[in-house]
Write a structure and sequence with these properties.
The protein has 29 helices and 20 strands.
Length: about 700
């Protein structure tokens, strides 16, 4: 008997097979777990056994495939054979001739859901936190254990495409409605009781697809009813992915082709597409960053060792604008008491109202209750009195990007804070070391750079000033994890990491406009590159006036330090549009005209910046946008702003949406190879200016064959 699955037959003749993979916090699909399930199937063949309940001895049912193992596969034969081996066990399970029920007491994701799909029925706890789904597409994979074969036959082709192609979690109530679950249970005792009852009521259970008159719900791939969907699905997928995510195309192909052939052939088709995904560079990029590096960060790789873990009990926020209001919401949601301070009670109340608006929507959509809403709001105390900050463990300043204003609120807050409190600035560009000069205790001063909108953006950039202590960094890191965000840690510099590199993307697009590139080509290139928004539209969102303010502040600061200021060629465009009142979305006028019906590129752009008759290839535009970002990230690494490749890659994807299929700004260089990057960067520098000259660290890696990631 395998240690991974324990077996126990009750007096009712029902075998309970409990998955409990040794040495792992969660059950993951691999040879050991599948050997345990195979042993359970062998025991099921005993004439005295009437059926089987497949359950879990861990908090979750099964977390999915063993990513550590998949990452080592380089030849397609390896994933193909592993996929087929898993399917062989699951096929034996469902063809044994006796009922098998999956008792799902926790998350069943990826390969975990595929195991459950091979059972004749699935019953889950009615827990709103419990997640079901096939999230493989989010790391460049497709379900390789029969997901694209069983799901279309169970819930229909269209629903299966959505589940596998989007990779989103499915709530228990939704899963029950769509037929993924046979039933739900209030607690674990009822879960097991209902599983036993189902087995007793269905002694000769067979899967729908093994019935002689089986038909796909809604029709198979030949069905005339699905012709309109197949006609537009590839176009929708292409618009979403811009052809950058092969897994999406492979999922559609596997489901389509699997709907033309018998079950066994469909299994082989899926395994071939699975092998193609696992061995692709896109999957290697995404697994490396969004699995290994992200998990390392969440486990504290960037946190100082030896500092005891901490929790924030009471948080003070200075400034109740959109950022302050957002920070108040996510903190109160995590159970933290919040003191939200502004210059007037009206402004402070408005900051709390931001949370009220979000919570009212959640209640309306059934995602929360009035009681939970009221309890969260009760944790936010709007005020104008600095004395109310006295008991705060942490204070975050979220006022206007002005050094004098920030210095004033820092002094006022520190005057009432306890000796052990940490003070943080939410600045997006101003160096923390300079801001800390206003502090009486710079060792307890740190940067916590949130992204807008705070309730949706997953990243917080932690900036360490010259005097910031390890204890302060550890406490800031713990707070970010406490509110459910992902922390990256960077050293102090102007613009830090995210703002500095993000700006190269939008500014490169703006420079193209000045050169005579058609604005529509610029915007299309941004999307084709894999960025979430095109550069001109994105600059409108963050505002042209803010970009101009930051540039002018930088110019003054560098002049005071006796250092030269090199203006980006796109800045003159920002200045010119600001002069005519086109300052961005907030004014309804920027690169776009913004109205109730959406946005349209301002027709006057091509008058101000005439379009050249000879337009560059889209590949040239894409390269400029991506190389500008990756090269600046490499400079941040070279200058010591970045502390690790993981911080760089995760920060670039979660912070400003650097094309995830590349695996992050430094992985872009690693995947291409330093020598190839240097050669192309020098071509771009010759054509467009010295900003493209490859960072010295990449030139050095090209000579020595090095990489950023280990």
């Amino acid at each position: 008997m395998s240690d991974a699955v324990s077996l126990e037959v009750g007096s009712d003749g029902i075998l309970v097979a409990t998955m409990n993979l040794p040495g792992r916090p969660m059950n993951v699909v691999g040879d050991e777990l599948m050997a345990g399930i195979a042993a359970a199937v062998d025991r099921l063949s005993d004439p005295a056994v009437k059926g089987m309940i497949l359950a879990s001895g861990k908090a979750d049912f099964c977390a999915g495939g063993d990513i550590d193992r998949m990452a080592k596969w380089t030849q397609p034969e390896e994933p193909f054979e592993a996929s087929m081996a898993m399917k062989k066990v699951l096929r034996r399970l469902e063809l044994q001739g006796k009922p098998v029920v999956a008792a799902i007491g926790g998350h069943a994701l990826g390969g975990g859901l595929e195991i459950a799909l091979a059972c004749h029925a699935r019953i889950a706890l009615a827990d709103p936190r419990l997640k079901l789904g096939q999230p493989e597409v989010k790391i460049g994979l497709l379900p390789g254990g029969g997901g694209t074969v069983r799901l279309p036959r169970l819930v229909g082709i269209q629903a299966a495409l959505q589940i596998c192609g989007e990779g989103n979690d499915i709530a228990v109530t939704k899963a029950r409605e769509m037929g993924l679950l046979a039933d739900t249970a209030a607690d674990r005792d009822e879960l097991m009781a209902k599983a036993r009852a189902w087995i007793a009521a269905n002694p000769k259970a067979r899967q729908p697809w093994d019935q002689p008159k089986f038909k796909f719900p809604g029709g198979d791939s030949r069905s005339p009813a699905l012709v309109p969907m197949w006609a537009i699905a590839p176009s929708i997928a292409s618009a979403r992915s811009q052809g950058n995510y092969p897994a999406l195309q492979h999922i559609m192909s596997s489901i389509f082709e699997g709907g033309l052939v018998d079950f066994e052939t469909a299994q082989v088709v899926e395994s071939r597409y699975f092998a193609a995904c696992v061995t692709s560079q896109v999957s290697k990029n995404m697994i490396g960053t969004l699995w290994f590096q992200l998990n390392a960060i969440k486990k504290g790789a960037s946190r100082p060792q030896g500092v005891p873990a901490s929790k924030v009990r009471r948080l003070g926020i200075l400034g109740a604008g959109m950022m302050g209001g957002g920070i108040a919401y996510v903190s109160a949601k995590a159970g933290i008491e919040v003191v939200l301070l502004d210059t007037t009670q009206e402004a402070a109340d408005k900051g709390k109202a931001y949370s009220q608006g979000l919570l009212d929507k959640a209640v309306k959509k059934g995602r929360s209750t009035p009681d939970k809403r009221d309890a969260l709001l009760a944790r936010i105390r709007p005020t104008t009195q600095y004395e109310d900050l006295a008991a705060c463990d942490l204070v975050i300043e979220a006022v206007f990007e002005d050094r004098a204003v920030k210095a004033d609120v820092t002094r006022k807050a520190e005057a009432v804070l306890g000796a052990g409190a940490v003070f943080a600035s939410n600045t997006s560009t101003l160096p923390i070391t300079g801001l800390a000069r206003a502090s009486a205790r710079p060792g307890s001063f740190i940067g916590l750079h949130f992204f807008s909108p705070v309730d949706k953006m997953p990243l917080v950039e932690i900036i360490v000033g010259q005097a910031t202590s390890d204890e302060t960094l550890a406490r800031g890191f713990d707070y970010v994890l406490q509110i459910g965000k992902t922390p990256i840690v960077v050293n102090d510099s102007r613009g830090f990491y995210t703002s500095r590199v993000f700006s190269t993307y939008v500014m490169e697009g703006i420079a193209m406009l000045k050169e005579g590139v058609h604005p529509r080509s610029i915007e299309a290139a941004g999307l084709q590159a894999g960025m979430p928004m095109p550069p001109l539209a994105l600059q409108d969102e963050v505002s042209l006036s803010l970009a101009l303010h930051v540039a002018e502040q930088t110019r003054k600061d560098l002049a005071a330090e006796g250092r030269p200021y090199t203006e980006h060629p796109g800045m003159s465009v920002i200045r010119q549009l600001c002069e005519i009142g086109r300052v961005g979305k907030k004014a309804g006028r920027g690169f776009y005209d913004h109205g109730d019906e959406g946005r349209q590129l301002w027709p006057g752009l091509t008058t101000l910046y005439p379009v050249d008759a000879q337009q560059p290839a889209q590949r040239e535009l894409i390269d400029r946008m991506m190389f500008a970002q990756a090269n600046e990230a490499a400079r941040c690494h070279e200058e010591g702003v970045l502390r690790s490749a993981a911080d760089a890659n995760v920060g670039s994807i979660f912070g400003w949406g650097f094309a995830p299929f590349h695996g992050g700004a430094l992985q872009f260089i690693d995947a291409m190879g330093a020598a190839a990057f240097v050669a192309r960067a020098r071509e771009l520098a010759a054509a467009y200016g010295p900003r493209f000259e490859p960072a010295a660290v990449v030139v050095q890696m090209a000579a020595q064959g090095g990489r950023f990631a280990a």
